[in-house]
Amino acid sequence: MTVDIMGVSKRPFKVTGKTSYHYKLEGRRLSLSTANYSEACELLKAVKKAYMNKRLAWITGECDMTLGQFQKEYEPWAEDTQPTKTFKANRLALRKVIDIEGGSQRLDRLTLKAMDELKRKNRKLKPSSINNYIRHSKAVMNKAVEWGYLRANPFRGAKLLQQTKRVAFIEPKQISDFIKSVEDVGLRRFIVASLATGRRRSELFNLRWEDILWDKKKYFIAKEKRHLCKTYPMSASFLAVLKSMRKGKGRIFNRFGHVDTYTHEVKEALKNGGFGNLCLHDLRHSFSVAMIESGGGMKALQKLLGHSEFRTTSDIYADVTDDTLADAVNLVKLGPMDLFSTKKK
Prior knowledge:
The chain has 345 residues and is mostly helical. The protein is built from 15 helices and eight strands.
């Protein structure tokens, strides 16, 4: 016989035809998902404790907190604890969800439909931008799970959009001529540094003389997220760039005060060099393609680019790799062959 204490069964009990032990909660029969009585008792003890601590919502999977209430709790916490860039992206994603679902929508009523609506409403944006919203929406809801408001992330199964855009780059054999076409020596040094390291524009713009480890021939890239800070080896070309400049303190590439100015200046140089369809970020792709075509492996490229996941590298440069393989397979020369006549014995 089971006696309810504050709406919870006193002991686990068996149900006809079931192997697992069960219990009652507010009149509802729920499974403890174990056939071991001792384990069932321990689990029920945890349920009672959670119930008494007013965690009924977590136990049943229900939550009466709304998106608007969660926003008021989440955003101040995120602003104080997350890197600025991450916080802004998470905040924007959460507000996108609220625009779709409304601030009065309960967290436990969220489904994958919200992500489908997010894709539909932002269909004019680049797939990469939409995918960014999806990733950060998932990250925000992960915090709702961690805080005990939800048992599972409602956006966990959301699929990202396929990105079919081919990588744009300068052919390795054209790089030397492009560099020669850049008349301004200061800008030429920045461009060579980009092509020699594959660094993102912000990474190169923020690089400081204090980050150069001359004795080890390495340089340090600082990130807002400490675990992403890393040292990278210096190529001979990048080392030549640094040696051609007057060593000082602070930012190495300090010709312009804002990174966007470098973006515009490099775009102009690309246009003058016959690559008007490219932009500053494509110098990073040019570095990657040159490395792949020289026989560099994808794993090494992943580490040099600073991608946290190998899949990111392989997805971006899959087409380039296929083209390289197509060229490589023809490097095996077998000489003249007669494939038509039969030789007489």
